[in-house]
Every structure is written in C-alpha cells, then in structure tokens.
Amino acid sequence: MVRQVFAWVGRDRLSIGEVTRRLNQAKERTRSGKTVWDRGTVWGMLKNPAYQGQAAFGKTRSAPWQPLLRPQRGDPTAPRHPARSVGVLQDEWTYIAVPPLVEEALFAAVQEQLQENQRHARQRQRGASYLLQGLVVCQRCGYAYYGKPVSTGAAKGKRREYAYYRCLGTDAYRFGGERVCDNQQVRTDQLEAAVGGEVCALLREPQRVEQEYHRRLLPSPASEAEQKLGTLAVRLGKLRGGLARLIDSYAEGLIEKEEFEPRLQRQRERIAQLVQFGGSN
Asked: Does 149 share its domain with 195?
C-alpha cells in the first residue's frame, strides 16, 4: 500500500486529496487500524525518508512551554508538563539505514510533485477566502468553524454573494459517519459584520487594549472558577473523544448495532449533563 501511494504521486502525478479519496474508497487501514484517512497522514507518509531507506532521528526537540492565545479544543489553559515540541532543521537530523520500500528516484519524484502541487494550490493563488475561518469556535462542541460556499443545488441556480461558516463537528464524514454536533451554520456576511463591529468598538477604547496587553504580560494565577472550567473542559474533551472512538468502532464493524446504540445514547447523555453543569456554573 505504501508503494502504491508513492506511485500515485510520483508517477501518476496525483494530488494528496485524490490519494486520500482512493484510500478511503478502498477501505485501506491506517497504521492505527482505522479506515478513514486524513490528508495530513498521507503527507507525513510521503515526507518520511524511512521509506527510501533512511530513518531520521531527532526531528524534534523539547523546548520551554509558551502559553497560547487560545488553548486547543478540550485542553486545559496550562499543561501538566510545561514543555512543547519544536521542529529541528533537516541538516541536524540523524539518519539510520533501514530496509527501503521505495526507490530513491521515486522518493525524489514525489518530493518534486509535492512542491509542484503546492505551487498550483488554489489557496495559494487566491489567498484566504474566509476572514474568520479557524478563529470562530463552536460553543457547543469546541470545534472551529470553516467557510463553505453555497452549493449550486441549494442556491437553485441563483448567484449568492455570501457563504456560510460551518462547525467541523457537524460533518459526519469526519467522525465515521456520525456527527458530534448539531449547531447551525452562520452566514459569513452577517457574522463578519458582527465581529467587525466589535473590533471597531474595541479600537475606539484603546485603554481596553492596553489593559489586556499588560494582563497578558503578567498573567495572574487562575481563579477557582477558571480551574473548575479547565477541569470540565478536559473531561468534556475525553468524553467526546470516547464518542468519536465509539462511532469509529461501529463504522469498522468492531461492535454490533445492538451494543452500539445504547452506548451511544449513554455517552451523549453524559456529555449533555456535563455541558449543562458547566453552563450552570
């Protein structure tokens, strides 16, 4: 399967998106046993020099932790271990000879094709199409919103000057065929106008910006309420992760429908109770 993926890109000149679609249609399994492939997984495979016989060691190193503007979904404000992983320049990697799966010429051809695909990527040519994509977060499930244009069928042949921001959690195909959120999508023009109004109001009060700047320079210890919210966020993230794994198990035929449905209902009830508890606090 690895040789086939390299041949698709290095010889047939396919994009990573097309390779991902073919793997999903063929129900090929990933290293962890799943049948749903992600583009990042394929990208990492094609960039891994171990497949041409040179496994690399020391590609990352540990560095002091730095606080993020916005913690990742389900993560606490401060990690349990205050460190982070950063990339190391390729010249500093240590290589170990291993049995190759693909020829060096094919591996080099794949790297050239990946660069060519990047040059022709539509995102590079037109720039970002949606101002708030990835910045707006769903309050219900914690996933980010992304921009999605109105389809021709939904528009009934009429040209629409707006699109929609849609929650990632409402896409069933990302979670083994079962959505994890039922929040509604929002029109791009309306949301951007609302956020733009808030930004303009903030800029008219520069003292608020200055206060926030100094607050972040000298972060105060988290209050008891913030600590509780952080704990709730971690628990909620674990429950949602368990829900996604349960759906994956059913999609891959590891559990029967009679067992899946009651477990799914219990998991959703636990998530709803935790969300309600967090909202009441």
From this structure: yes
In a domain, 41, yes or no: yes
**Which CATH number covers residue 107?**
3.90.1750.20
Q: Give a yes or no: residue 204 inside a domain.
A: yes
Residue 252, phi then psi, degrees to nearest 5: -90, 5
The alpha carbon of residue 104 and the mean position of all alpha carbons in its chain are separated, in whole angstroms, by 31
Under 8 Å CB-to-CB from 280, ≥6 apart: which residues?
none
DSSP string, 126-160: H--S-TTTTT-B-TTT-PBEEEEEPPHHHHTT---
Cα–Cα distance measured from residue 115 to residue 125, given in angstroms and rounded to the nearest whole number: 14
Over residues 176-202, the pLDDT tens digits come to 677 888 899 999 999 999 999 999 999
Q: What is d(CA 68, CA 218) in angstroms, rounded to the nearest whole number?
A: 14
How many structural domains comprise the chain? 2
Q: Which of 22, 3, 1 is nearest to 11 (CA)?
A: 3
Q: Where are the alpha helices (DSSP H) in the chain?
A: 2-10, 16-25, 39-47, 104-119, 122-126, 152-155, 188-203, 206-217, 224-251, 257-280
Compute the distance between CA of residue 54 and CA of residue 262 in angstroms, rounded to an integer: 48
HSE (CB half, 13 Å, CA atoms) of 147? Answer: 15
Determine whether 251 is exposed, middle or buried from the number of CB atoms within 10 Å of its CB (0-12, 13-18, 19+): middle
Q: What is the pTM of this model?
A: 0.48
Q: How far apart are CA 27 and CA 251, in angstroms?
A: 11
Question: Could you give phi then psi for residue 38, rounded to 5 degrees?
Answer: -115, 150
Computed over every residue of the chain, the mean pLDDT equals 81
